[in-house]
């Protein structure tokens, strides 16, 4: 994908490269949010209990 | 999906390393204070129930209500809060799950850091990452801790959802403020940045009705210092590693 973007002078291909880049960055950010939410904020008791000392030790509101 | 893959790999590896380091730091600095606070918590909850029972006829009913009211933030180990849910047993198992949470949490934060920095052009090496890591420390640890100090078990606290909402709002507003200060050059945007950073503390974090606690103030203060200092080291290392690995993976996939 990176190679087609750099090799092709076609503006449409470059544009789809930009769009794809934005989608990928957004996906990565959303995955990061999902993970941090699960470890730091989830109210599911098992997750809370497993991550209890982590939450306290990083300053997350815990109880 | 080359960019996505590079970000996920860089986040996973930097999260693993920084998360393990953080587990060691916590084991030395914060966890002993958590365990100490839990002894106050257990000591406080027993006399509260007994005391109430001694001067109340309907002791059974009131005993449980009183206990719940006296310790709404009770530690899950005691089993009051979360019913029959599984709890890791003290010692090695508890440490193992803390390590797991550290590694997974660090990878999640690294992914967020990498995604946000990618919008600004991507981390160009360990020094770049170090700067971003310190900025993230300011947004995620320092700013929330000012108005909502890291809590030990058995310390009084306001409603959990309200505190979580304030915490998230403060981290986001501070991060946006720092980004405006660093990347924009106009005076109105600089003023907006200052407002964004100050506003959460003017609004104020949700506070408990009383700060009276069985936990000594010196212990609570020591815990705040331990959390902030260990988090600073963690974010500096996580940022530097993420920057270094992002640069490596970007080079190998380009």
From TrEMBL, chain A:
Keywords: Membrane, Transmembrane, Transmembrane helix. Pfam families: CbtB (PF09489). It comes from the Bacteria. The chain crosses the membrane at residues 25-47. The keyword Transmembrane applies. This is CbtB domain-containing protein. It comes from Xanthobacter oligotrophicus.
UniProtKB/TrEMBL annotation, chain B:
This is CbtA family protein. Residues 45-65 are annotated as: Disordered. The keyword DNA repair does not apply. It comes from the Bacteria. The chain crosses the membrane at residues 95-117, 129-146, 166-183, 190-207, 219-245. Residues 1-28 form the signal peptide. The keyword Cytoplasm does not apply. Pfam families: CbtA. Residues 53-64 have a biased composition (Basic and acidic residues). It comes from Xanthobacter oligotrophicus. Keywords: Membrane, Signal, Transmembrane, Transmembrane helix. InterPro entries: CbtA_put.
């Amino acid at each position: 994908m990176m190679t087609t973007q750099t090799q092709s002078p076609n503006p449409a291909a470059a544009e789809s490269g930009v769009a794809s880049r934005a989608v990928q960055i957004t996906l990565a950010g959303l995955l990061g949010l999902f993970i941090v939410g699960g470890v730091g904020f989830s109210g599911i008791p098992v997750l809370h209990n497993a991550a209890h000392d982590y939450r306290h030790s990083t300053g997350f509101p815990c109880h | 999906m080359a960019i996505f893959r590079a970000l996920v790999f860089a986040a996973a590896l930097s999260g693993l390393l920084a998360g393990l380091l953080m587990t060691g730091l916590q084991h030395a600095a914060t966890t002993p204070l958590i365990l100490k606070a839990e002894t106050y918590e257990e000591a406080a909850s027993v006399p509260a129930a007994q005391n109430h029972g001694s001067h109340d006829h309907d002791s059974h009913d009131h005993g449980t209500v009183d206990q719940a009211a006296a310790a709404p933030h009770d530690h899950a180990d005691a089993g009051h809060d979360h019913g029959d849910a599984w709890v890791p047993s003290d010692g090695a198992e508890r440490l193992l799950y803390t390590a797991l949470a550290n590694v997974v949490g660090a990878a999640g934060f690294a992914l967020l850091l990498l995604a946000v920095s990618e919008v600004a052009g991507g981390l160009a090496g360990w020094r770049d990452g170090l700067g971003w890591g310190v900025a993230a420390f300011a947004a995620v640890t320092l700013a929330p801790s000012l108005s909502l100090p890291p809590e030990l078990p058995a310390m009084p606290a306001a409603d959990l959802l309200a505190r979580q909402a304030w915490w998230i709002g403060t981290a986001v507003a501070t991060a946006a403020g720092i980004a405006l200060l660093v990347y924009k050059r106009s005076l109105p945007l600089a003023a907006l940045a200052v407002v964004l950073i100050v506003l959460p503390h003017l609004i104020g974090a949700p506070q408990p009705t009383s700060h009276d606690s069985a936990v000594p103030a010196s212990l609570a203060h020591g815990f705040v210092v331990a959390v902030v200092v260990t988090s600073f080291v963690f974010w500096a290392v996580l940022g530097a590693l993420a920057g270094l690995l992002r640069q490596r993976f970007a080079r190998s996939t380009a």
